[in-house]
Amino acid sequence: MEPDGKFGPVLAGPILRHSAPDSLVLWLVTSERTEFAIQIFDGIEPLLDRPVADSEIVQLRVGTRAWLNLLTISPESALPHNTRLDYDLGLTANGSGAPRWIGEWAPHLCPEGRERPGFTLKSRLDRILHGSCRRPHHPSRDGLVRVDEELQKAEQLEDVPSLLLMTGDQVYADDVAGPMLHAIQCVIHQLGLYQETLEGASLSHSRELTSVANAYYHRDELLPESEFNEDLTERFFGGVRKPVFTTANAGNHLISFAEVMAMYLLVWSPEPWAFVTNAEPVDDPDELARYRNEQAAIDEFRRSLPRAARAMANVPVYMIFDDHDVTDDWNLSALWETTAYEHPFSRRIIGNALLGYLLCQGWGNQPGNFRELIGQCQKLFESSNEQHELDKAIHDDLIDQLFHFQHWHYSLPTSPRLVVLDTRTHRWRSEIRRSHPSGLMDWESLTDFQHEIMGEDAVVVVSPAPMFGVKLIEMIQRVFTFFGKPLLVDAENWMAHRGAASVLLNIFGHPRTPRHFVILSGDVHYSFAYDVRLRHKQNGPHVWQITSSGIKNEFPNALLEWLDRLNRWLFAPWSPLNWFTKRRRMWISPRLPEDREAGERLWNGAGIGDVRLDDEGAPTAIRQLDAGGGGTVFQRRVKED
């Protein structure tokens, strides 16, 4: 481990974010305040070679040795479409000396045979890579490594991805392996990430998180005893087990902002791992066995990080949150919101995760949407005192602003238009019972969405949860909800709320809805593709539901096969159960994975989705690329369902 003051200049990044002819956004974290120079080349011809202007940089000091930087470069002349452009970033510390370029401080980001990373601004969205659910300690390989492989071998223009969409659960703030939590504490210590006071728990300061008896695997026990907190433990910390789908793993839930920030550094960059010591900070035999099992998965994840980082430096990356970026079942129901937001401890935990999402994900999508919030972040980090502790009042005020922020969603004026939905903070709360799942978007947000797409010939929509999912699983969710137990099965789908489902289906039936409607989703830990049409409407839109999940996560394989087969039997075209589904106005034809087992419709394997679109915005190929190589093509079939 390098001694204090000897850190490399860049701790994470650059990650290539919003990219257009008139704007190039780069995200990175440095170990000291830095001045930058930018170079962009078309072959050997320099298109840009100058210092980055002060107006193009926002720097936030998040620790004594950690500066978060967002660079929004505005070229004097528009960058060309459809040609490979190389870029380089020069660093000058303390305003003196010659710049140090990427080949010196992050050579792992340069593609093989090239001196610099690069990108291509496509004139249309003709190839999209997409995926969700990147869980570091899952034993599968990392799908971002497959992204790197696809970038390395893309020699023809049509093979170059237009962008990479990360459609939710880029981090798991609520499901952290023991070795990852140890690594987080090492990074916090080495970088001096700012700490904070806490309220409503059995500890009063974030520094105590490393010393309390429940530091590993038992964080749900940090709440003081009370009847109210029994509900909080069950609803927020996932105190109930979830048969069929997942098991609650919130015992290592991230709590402080420093922990969230360290997590992002560790999942996106190999550099901070140099600060991590070898340790086994648990004594219980069962917990020690679990820790060692997780350590093996984390070690493999760490080994592949240089390639994952290279992928994110060489293609424009866009992101949107889902629940695990903040906490499991985030805003599931009105009752969940009341329980979680009215307690100061869980409110701070949620707020810190959302602050981390803002700084490390959301900001880079459309920087102009966040100027006021970033100004408040600057105020918060400048409030750090001699103990490197954030001001509590400013911190709480910023979290209030984050909870009321209305513009996490965004769209890009691409061809076809890309519309990314926020299905987490604009919920349509149940009018029947507060414990029932909320609609994924409220009426106002759905109306805004409809206005956004009306008149377009084609549109690509990112909905973290599939709009059209597996009927059997949705029915199981509905049954659990009926008996008042929605938390048992992640009862979150578009059809779970009558009002939201009705408005959504009416959007597809509107005469001015796009002719081609591609929906990209994740969330469910398996992959599938559906062709969707309106029944009894020959000129209705062509809709494709394409789901890719997870990047580094998988559904229990035997269980998925059982659900897949049972779903085919219960919801065959002749089945009367189809009349009890809200989407009975739609005709849905599942595409079949190539080389599937007999009747298989769902694909279970960590990796990345790959969609090719023609000039009209219709898919010409839908593939799932497995993280370990291979994959499948989803093939069109005859009408069904």
UniProtKB/TrEMBL annotation:
Record InterPro entries: Metallo-depent_PP-like, PhoD-like_MPP, PhoD-like_sf
Family annotation (CDD domains): MPP_PhoD
Name of the protein in its database record: PhoD-like phosphatase metallophosphatase domain-containing protein
